[in-house]
Amino acid sequence: MRALIQRVTKASVTVNNKTISTIGHGLVILVGVGHGDGDAQARWLTEKITNLRIFSDADGKMNLSVLEAGGAAIVVSQFTLFANTEKGRRPSFIEAALPDVAAPLVERFATLLREQGVATQSGVFGADMLVEIHNDGPVTIWLEK
Questions:
Q1: Confidence at residue 62, expressed as pLDDT on a 0 to 100 scale
Q2: Contact present, 58 and 28 (Cβ < 8 Å)
Q3: Residue 50: active-site member
Q4: Predicted local confidence at residue 118, as pLDDT
Q5: Is 78 a catalytic site residue?
Q6: Is 120 an annotated catalytic residue?
Q7: What is the three-state SS of 51-91?
Q8: With pLDDT > 90 as the criterion, what percentage of the chain qualifies?
Q9: Exposure string (b/e) for 52-67, b if CB count within 10 Å is 16 or more?
């Protein structure tokens, strides 16, 4: 699994001109699922993301996790994180898991975040989404397991 996390001051997801998810302070987590990914990878990402100290403390230092900072999260499935651009001009996505594998694993990941205490919303798997991100910092971190 791959995740691109962005610390945000606010974010939202809109599908078919309807806002379906919105948060203030927290994280937008773009998640891609590859072949062979499973529960172990989802659990590792959950543990890493919930405890990653990327929020500022009272002294302005990145010392707080999303839990400690009281932040929320939006999880957005994004198979394009598995784009292979080595050849030609059109990305190949053959390294991305098929939807019947990826969709439940993305949902499992969102559920695990909720179980850890992170207020978590989601996009719509496979939908054409408009994701509005107000990146804070900017802080953007790539994770892969």
A1: 96
A2: no
A3: no
A4: 98
A5: yes
A6: no
A7: HCCCEECCCCCEEECCCCCCCEEEEEECHHHHCECCCCCCC
A8: 99
A9: bebbbeeeeeeebbbe
Chain segment 29-62, per-residue pLDDT in tens:
999 999 999 999 999 999 999 999 999 999 999 9
The catalytically annotated residue of 78, 109, 120, 121 is 78
Question: What global pTM score does this model have?
Answer: 0.96
Task: Considering the candidates 6, 41, 46, 79, report the single residue annotated as catalytic.
Answer: 79
By the 8 A CB rule, do 45 and 3 touch? yes
> What number does CATH give the domain 2-136?
3.50.80.10
C-alpha span between 139 and 57 (Å, rounded):
15
Q: How far apart are CA 56 and CA 27, in angstroms?
A: 13
CA distance 123 to 90: 25
Taking CB atoms within 8 Å and a gap of at least 24, the contacts of 89-95 are 95/34, 95/35
Could you tell me the residue ranges of all domains in the chain? 2-136
How far is residue 26's CA from residue 49's CA, in Å, rounded to a whole number?
A: 11
